């Protein structure tokens, strides 16, 4: 009986080995399939058009104005969107041709001596109300990022020496190249500060701001013009001068009455002589 049991166990053991070998083969096939799929997707993503551009990258830049952006900078923007998880449409380059002309600008924003080597772009959010400013250098490295909630500004660049406002309401030459951020109701300058070693924003005063600065806020809570009002009211004081002249004109009449007294006295003397 024992021999029969042992023989049955010996006979039943080979099928178990066949099953483990089959599972190993299936695992290898799955791994190979995954590798093949990965290689296929990688090759597909690296496919280029006849002009050397990448189809998936060019899909982000549909407006004609974007033709002025070199291919490598377009790749920088694409990679930023991809790495940030924004390729799902969270952020994108505007599709409006007229606006597309004013959402990117080149310049030497870090004053490293490389003219027009840095690129600034405005990425729009899918709420169509907010946006994001992103600045790259010529290597695709991020230099500055700033969010604009509920605002869709346009941008332009300026060179060193351009007249701008910094700490006060006084135009001075820009120490470095920078960006003009034109919002709906205000204007700012984004400039690299060599002292603080970072980008900073500076409000740009307008003619309306200067006119308000000429007004003073009185204690009653109302605006009154200060210097202009004082100058205009000065002639009102001079109007009182004619009254003084009228008083002076009365004095001659008094003198005339006094001069007539001697004439009366002369006539009295004549009557006495008779």
Structure in words:
By secondary structure, the chain is α+β, with helices and mostly antiparallel strands. It has seven helices and 13 strands. The protein has a domain at 55-212. Strands 1, 2, 3, 4 and 5 form a five-stranded antiparallel beta sheet that branches. A four-stranded antiparallel beta sheet has the order 6-9-10-11, with no helix packed on it. The longest helix is centred in the first third of the chain and has 44 residues, at 2-45. Mean pLDDT is 76; it is low at 5-11 and 215-274.
- Put simply, the count of helices is 7
Residue windows where pLDDT falls under 50 for at least 5 positions:
5-11, 215-274
What level of helicity do the residues show? Answer: 40-55%
Q: Care to count the β-strands?
A: 13
Can you tell me the overall shape?
elongated
Radius of gyration: 45 Å
* Biggest sheet architecture: 5 strands, antiparallel
**Global structural class:** alpha+beta
Order of helices and strands: HHHEHEEEEEEEEEEHEEHH
Beta-strand percent range: 15-25%
Give the distance, in angstroms, between the N- and C-terminal Cα atoms: 201 Å
Mean pLDDT: 76
